[in-house]
Amino acid sequence: MNKFPREQIREARILVVGDIMLDRYWFGEVERISPEAPVPVVHVARREDRLGGAANVARNARALGAQVTLIGIVGRDEAGEKVQKLLDEDGVTHALVEDDSFPTIVKMRVIARQQQMVRVDFEQAPTSDCVARLNQIARAQLDSADVLILSDYAKGALGRVQELIVAAQEAGVLVLVDPKGSDYTRYRGAGLVTPNRLEMQQAVGSWTDEDELERKAQALRKLLSLEALLVTRSEQGMTLFTEDSRDHVDALAHEVFDVSGAGDTVLATLAVMKAVGASWDTAMRWANRAGGIVVGKLGTSTVTAEEME
Predict the structure, then answer these.
(1) What is the dihedral of CA 36, 37, 39, 41, to 10 degrees?
(2) What's this model's pTM, rounded to 2 decimal places?
(3) Which CATH number does the domain housing residue 228 bear?
């Protein structure tokens, strides 16, 4: 890797489309067990809201210096207003579909003594009308994008994802996908798909050695007509499969504090590096560095250009 291309990244235009959520953290202390049930009583002392899902991908790309537009679905509620406020504070341009019948997705975590005690999720699937409006807005933004990121958390915003990939192909825009589920045919024609180890197993089955992984990965890459397939493997690093090669980098993290949102950071870094003309191999190595930094932080966090340098 050469020097981090900070100046070029300022001109990069990243379009992020996908499932938006609000990560809500309640921090407190545990000093006793509830008399009502054998559970700890957390005295909440501090609350913090952070962008999650596709919104976290967008803020990560923005933190690296790129110009970022986010498209997704939120409710007309307090959480939706908070999402938009946080996006504005982070400098992320947004064109969101707001819907009265769709509550903004919220993941609430209660944390005490640096340990997550419980997580409570509030979510429901968006209507087909919302998804259609999202696709319409996204297609209109493609002409002003260098790279399209599709952040799929299986919450419904990307229910018609193949339409977006076809539109991006027609516009000559590279597509990067963070996938979900076992049917990857819906991502056919993207430039890159980035499953983690578990997601890869769900898509192609388990493997017994590196040779079998390579055979299955290359078969999937060819089936989907991908330029590249990147398998993120936690403590085992990352493995990149392209038509010409297989490349691997070991994990760089010295201390893993929290892996929440690490995949978002990796995806955002890949997109930013591809937007400035980096090869897949170079983009992967910078993404590996970013991932190694962010897992040392609590919750969904970002990596800045200064930290990358």
Answers:
(1) 0
(2) 0.92
(3) 3.40.1190.20
